[in-house]
């Protein structure tokens, strides 16, 4: 019987067999809210598209928090003082609903800056104002929002670029089509951002770092650990929590020797070139 079956199968016309060679992939690539250059390979495209989706998720939540609570939210007042909320709402909304056509994220390294120690990416500045390069370091070190409030992360003691969504939000604000030269750097670090708000300074609502910190804090409070969040600081200090920023500082120091004249660093090793 077995022999007969074998003989029959050998005689079967080849066309009747399902082709084992090239099944069509069942899934489409992950859709990115911003264009990704073909220099990104399949895994980079997938990671970056996911991170850009998370950036939209993060700011959409921040916008919703403001629309629901406005200045009744203690977190709103902590970061924006008594400033009206329209500017911050717009700064978040343009990420969610703006025209993404004049923005490009790429994975090749046309300016050669990814070779510099500690560089996670850079805005191409005069070489291509709409373009941002994302270097390999980002793919291996930036975290996804599912780890918000875990692994020692706190709002007050960790860098905003711990999460890829925070890092990409910062990079998006440097692109003229998004930041429009209005969202800029007026404060650096958690304490600087709080100072800006305490003085009820008008810059608070269009400060790049303020917008990042607020989005991360309301996400931590509303989504990651509901009603609690992870502000950290004096109330919540442990040895674990100081380890991570120390590592970032080191990255920053190493990078500093190599910074071209047209670039600036932020606390924690974020680099931008104009
Ligand atoms: C894409 O490029 C990265 C960085 O060079 C590499 O680690 C990864 O393995 C590549 N993925 C594929 C599918 O080739
Ligand atoms: C809150 O916003 C309202 C207007 O929406 C304003 O009248 C009020 O003064 C603000 N309160 C604070 C504490 O900023
Ligand atoms: C622009 O290109 C030049 C020449 O390749 C390079 O020296 C410079 O660093 C680039 N600028 C940026 C912001 O990367
Ligand atoms: C900022 O605004 C709040 C609310 O109106 C007020 O209580 C506080 O005194 C103001 N701070 C400064 C430095 O003006
Ligand atoms: Zn910057």
TrEMBL record:
UniProt biased composition (Acidic residues): 236-260
Location of the Putative peptidase domain: 22-232
Highest taxon in the source lineage: Eukaryota
Classification via InterPro entries: HRXXH, MetalloPept_cat_dom_sf, PRA1-like
Region annotation Disordered: where it falls in the sequence: 230-274
Keyword Signal part of the UniProt annotation: yes
Species of the source: Aspergillus cavernicola
Biased composition (Basic and acidic residues): 261-274
Protein name (database record): Antigen 1
Annotated signal peptide: 1-16
Keyword line: Signal
């Amino acid at each position: 019987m077995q022999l007969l079956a074998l003989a029959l199968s050998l005689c079967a016309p080849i066309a009747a067999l399902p082709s084992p060679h090239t099944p069509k992939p069942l899934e489409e690539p992950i859709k990115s809210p911003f264009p990704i250059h073909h220099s990104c390979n399949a895994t980079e495209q997938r990671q970056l598209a996911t991170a850009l989706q998370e950036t939209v998720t993060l700011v959409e939540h921040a916008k919703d928090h403001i629309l629901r609570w406005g200045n009744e939210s203690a977190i709103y007042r902590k970061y924006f003082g008594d400033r009206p909320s329209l500017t911050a709402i717009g700064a978040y909304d343009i990420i969610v609903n703006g025209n993404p056509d004049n923005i490009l994220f790429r994975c090749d390294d046309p300016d050669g800056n990814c070779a510099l120690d500690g560089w996670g990416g850079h805005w191409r500045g005069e070489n291509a104002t709409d373009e941002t390069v994302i270097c390999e370091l980002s793919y291996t070190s930036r975290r996804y929002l599912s780890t918000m409030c875990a692994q020692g992360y706190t709002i007050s003691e960790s860098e905003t670029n711990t999460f890829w969504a925070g890092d990409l939000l910062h990079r998006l604000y440097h692109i003229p089509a998004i930041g429009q030269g209005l969202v800029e750097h007026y404060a650096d670090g958690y304490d600087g951002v709080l100072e800006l708000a305490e003085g009820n300074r008008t810059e608070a609502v269009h400060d790049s770092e303020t917008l990042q910190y607020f989005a991360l804090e309301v996400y931590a409070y509303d989504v990651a650990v509901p009603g609690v969040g992870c502000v950290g600081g004096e109330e919540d200090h442990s040895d674990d929590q100081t380890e991570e920023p120390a590592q970032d500082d080191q990255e920053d120091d190493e990078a500093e020797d190599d910074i071209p004249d047209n670039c600036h660093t932020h606390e924690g090793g974020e680099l931008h070139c104009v």
